[in-house]
Amino acid sequence: MFLEKVVIDVLTKYPDFSPEKMIFVVPNKRATLFLKKYFSKHIGKICQSPRFLSMESWVEQIAQYQIMPNMSLLFELYNTYLANNDTPDDFETFVGWGQTLLQDFNEIDQYLINPNDIFPYIKAIKEVEHWSLSQELTPMQEKHLAFWNTLGLYYRAFSEKLTLKKQGYRGFVYRKATQKINSYIEKSKDKLHIFAGFNALTQSEEILIESVLLSTTSEIYWDIDKTFLSDNQHDAGYFIRQYFSRWKYYNNRERKWEGDDFSSEKNINIVGVPKSVNQAHYVGKLVNQIPDFQWENTAIILADENLLLPVIQSINKNKLPMNITMGYPLKQTSTSSLFSAFFKLYTSNNWYYKDVENLLQQPLIQRILSKDSIEQITQHIRHKNWVYISKNQLVEQLSLEDEEIINILFSDSKSITAKLLIEQCFNLIFILKNKLEEEKETNALLLEYLYRFYELFNQLYDLENQYSFLITPKTLYYLYNELLVKQTLDFQGEPLQGLQLMGMLECQNLDFENVIIVSVNEGILPAGKSVNSFIPFDVKNNLGLPTYKHRDAIFTYHFYRLLQRAKNIHLVYNTETDSFKGGEKSRFILQLLTQQADNLHITETILTPQVIASQFDLMIIEKDENVMTRLKEIASGRGFSPSALTTYIRNPIDFYKQNILQAREERDVEEIMEARTFGDIVHATLEALFSPYLGKILTIESIHSMKENVPFLIDKYFKELYKEEENLGKNTLIFSVIQEYIEQFLEMEKRTISHTTIEILALEKDLITSVRFPEFDFDICLRGTADRIERRNGQLYIVDYKTGKVEQRNITLNENGWQKLITDFNYNKAFQLLMYAYILKKENQHTDNEIFAGNYSFKNLESNFLGFRNENDKTPSAITDLINNRFEEKLKELLLEIFDPNIPFLEKKI
């Protein structure tokens, strides 16, 4: 293995060098653990240990500067920005672009770019972009150019501030180190420096390493295979080829440590698996096939670290020992979900009902808030149709025992400050801690999560104390997420034993015989081209700053380095797109497939999960004694409406649920008004408009009077039925639509009464009758509600309003239609009109032999009154005794089926 070979070579070449004077420098801290292991194994004597340092730690020692946390840097940069800008953005706006600026400063310093060169260069480019011969710059363009003019000023002022603090961002500290490298070398003449496993070095790192190599006793070990080094087109050797060609160190030295491991026999298994989670399942099965003596020599590499938990769960089924280097993201815990839901309430101007419900549904909240209180709140939200909620509305629904918790969860959102919000988070943590400690052993992991969040909020508390004038609740949420994303919970395990589970960059310098790489997809390995930067691509390219090409070469090196010494390689990729990723295999797989090499034994497989077609069994409910009893109760009680009977026609199971079980769907909050409420408002408004004219003949003047009341009545019923205190968003448009519908309807009525006499007889008329057919030994109640009953030129009309679309064909019956009237739901509107007329005639409320019935469709008002028709009639057909008797026969046929105990309720495919 590479690091072990390094240790052996150093001990062989420098047998008399005291270990305590040796300094090993490697890219990351993880590699130092393995170096220590191999050094202890091969030193063969008790001695003081060498110093094993990551590159970052070594640079900090040279510079005598400390790398600051990103959050502190962001605040310091904003202070610099404030001091050098007369009209600054607020901090919330600044964080949107300040992070990008910080990253650009970091790259400029890491690559030792002269700030006097790059900032005027960028400024000149931006001026050319906005240059126009004929037009003056707009104020927006002038502000934009002013920003580029001040970048150099911000950089210099920020550097001065950091120099005084002897702290800075990574690039700043690395630039300082290059300025002090000669002093460091003078003090380190008696030291042996060993650099191992580096690849993509920044300009500052190159200067630091080469300066030490040229001036002290030192060695550098590259982990590169000659297959990649000799091929000038292969990106895996891109960086190291440059060092060999341009470093003075290699002017009179031979290139060493070019391995030839990639030419060894390798079994490469390429597997395409649909969906990310199935990749995890496949890895679990794969690991189970590896002999236990090979576990320490097996690495599972996650190119997509979001698969950490699914992979752990798949492997844990086999109870295998493993070491997880990545740490479990605190962001993926239930505690994180709780605080995110909590913060979301206070980053909005109003409490949105879904945010309130989301908070109440958090598992941890349900441990400390009574079930009754949660149910009362959620039910009241739906009943009152609250889209936005106030604290007072919530408090009214709660029992006194929950008052303390509610005051923590729901403070006054308009007066809350960032400091108070942090204190409320502390209070919530303490309440949860006390509750969880009642069963301490069971809740050990949850208590650990809470403690980590307690530490996180302490950091936020310190930041708020230091920069209180900058932090608002919204800014606090941003800072919270920035800190949270870096927090992980370490897994227990031995770092040098068992299966190794790690991310792509953590495996640098490490070698394994068995390698499983997961999510080998384009856009993940390598990552996409997206880079946040203010520096244009051409400027970066010209000045030698890293671009996406640079990043692609880094991924290429890491990928092929993993394969160098491995014998058994499994490359797993996702064949389907998940969240805009996946579906396309990585270019690295395509490169391997096109390589003509006898030592690479490649197999390619695409796994397709076995799909078992599920048999959809239609539900059948037999009519037992209880069902028959319930049907008779309905018949003798509230009765059957056209809606109930057409529900049976549509699907008998729905009829069973609604009428026998009396099950109703829970009413949701209507953010945008639903058709049901829309119709209720239209009906209520029309009833109120026509009520003053009951028993009267409509006139043009009465229509004009109605129109004046339309806005007031719509507003009244909008608030009563929809329960929204203000018309917000799309509902304002719906309000206007209702008003336009009703005004158009009244205009149509005005045209009608110009040639027709209309007398209003009844509004929202309850129709009810009882029937007894010879086949039944009990009465059956039939009922309905007619929107309007009137006389037109002396003839009786039943009018039913429809806010949906109705066309003439929906209420026209031919012979085929009569046959399907009680079997096809498409005839439900005709069924309703015929049943209204049947009840009206049955009760002899009017002696008319002929009744007309029809709809006004508000989505088809241009068709005017749509009356029931027989197929061959050109105008509305009178519902005569003949038609009435024919309907009665169909009605009896339907009721006989419903009450037949031998005919079960059979579900229909809809």
SS class: alpha/beta
Number of strands: 30
Helix content: 40-55%
Q: Which strand order do you get reading across the main beta sheet?
A: 11-16-10-17-18-9-21
- CA-atom Rg in angstroms: 39 Å
Shape, please?
Answer: elongated
Spans with pLDDT under 50 lasting ≥5 residues?
A: none
Strand percentage: 5-15%
Largest sheet, strands/sense/barrel: 7 strands, parallel
End-to-end CA span: 65 Å
Oligomer: single chain
Average pLDDT rating:
87
Continuous helix count: 34
Organism: Capnocytophaga catalasegens
Protein name: PD-(D/E)XK endonuclease-like domain-containing protein
Domain PD-(D/E)XK endonuclease-like: 640-907
Could you walk me through the main structural features you see in this protein, from its secondary elements to its overall organization?
The chain has 910 residues and is an alpha/beta fold. It is built from 34 helices and 30 strands. It has a 7-stranded parallel beta sheet with strand order 11-16-10-17-18-9-21. A 5-stranded mixed beta sheet has the order 23-24-25-27-28, with helices on both faces. It has a 4-stranded parallel beta sheet with strand order 2-1-5-6, with helices on both faces. α5 packs parallel to α8 (170-187), α14 packs antiparallel against α15 and α30 runs antiparallel to α31. The longest helix has 27 residues, at 139-165. The protein starts with a helix and ends with a strand. The relative contact order is 0.08. The mean pLDDT is 87.
